[in-house]
C-alpha cells in the first residue's frame, strides 16, 4: 500500500490530472473521517465535496511544513466543525446527546493549537519547523530500534498529557521513576538532534524547559498532534488490518488508535477496512465540482 502524495506545484498550477489523483486517493479517508462525526449520509458527502473545493481555493498558500494530507484533513476538519456548529452537534455519529458538545469543543480547540508552539513571536516560525524535524527524527529512530514501549510512553506524556504517576502502571513499568527516566532520555536525545539544526542555540533551551512538569516556552504537546509526528504510514495500517504486523508495531498502533484516539489514523484505518464501499457517486460529485472550479482558475 503506497503512501502517495501529490506534486504540490502541479496542484498550484491547477493541473486537472493531478487533482483527479488527489480525489481518488483521499476521498475514502476523508469520508471515513466525517462518517465518525456526522450521521447524515448526504451531509457527509457535502462536507467532503466542500473540503476538496476548499483545498483548490487555498492551495496557493500551502505551507510546506506540513504534508498535503495534513493540509487536506485540516480543511475537512474545519468544514466538519462548521457543520456541527450549524446543527448544534445534533447529528454527531456514535455519541450520546450529552457527549456531543465536548467532542465539538475538542475539535474546535485542536484547531487553535498549531500557532502556539513558541511564546516569543520572533522564534515562532523557526521553532515550529525545527521542532517538527526533531520530533519526527526521534520517532523514526525509536521505531527503527523497535522501542515501542518507549514510543508509547513518550506519546502518552507529550500528546496525551499523562502524568508520570498515571503512566507506569499502564505500561507495566517498575515505578514512576522508570517513566521519568524514559522522559529524561528522550528529551536528552531531542536536544542532541536539535543542536545539529540549531546553530544559534535558540531551540535547545526551550527543549530543556520541557524536562519539568511546569509550563514550557515550547508547546511540544500541540506540535506532536498537529504535525502528526508519530502517525504511522498508511501501509502499516493496511498490514495491521491484514493481521501481518509483529507485536511491537501492532501494540503501538492499538495504543495510537484507541487510547490516543488519533482522528486521522482512524479515518485511514476505517477507509482501508471498508475498501468495498462504493464511492463512485461521491467521486463523481467531487470531480464535477472541482473540475468546474479548476476551469475557472485557469481561464485567462
Would you write up a description of this structure?
Helix content is 66%, strand content 0%. With 300 residues, the chain is mostly helical. The protein folds into 2 domains: 8-115 and 275-298, no CATH class; 119-263, no CATH class. The two termini are 39 Å apart. 34% of the residues are buried.
List the helices and strands and how they pair.
Elements: H1 8-12, H2 16-35, H3 41-58, H4 68-86, H5 97-110, H6 124-144, H7 148-158, H8 164-167, H9 176-197, H10 204-209, H11 220-226, H12 234-242, H13 247-259, H14 263-273, H15 280-298
List keywords for this structure.
single chain, 300 residues, mainly alpha, 0% strand
Poorly predicted residue ranges:
91-121, 210-217
Percentage of residues assigned to helices: 55-70%
Ends apart, CA distance between termini:
39 Å
- The domain count comes to 2
Please provide the count of β strands: 0
The helix-and-strand class reads mainly alpha
How confident is the prediction overall: mean pLDDT? Answer: 80
Give helix and strand order, one letter per element, not per position.
HHHHHHHHHHHHHHH
Short précis:
With 300 residues, the protein is mostly helical.
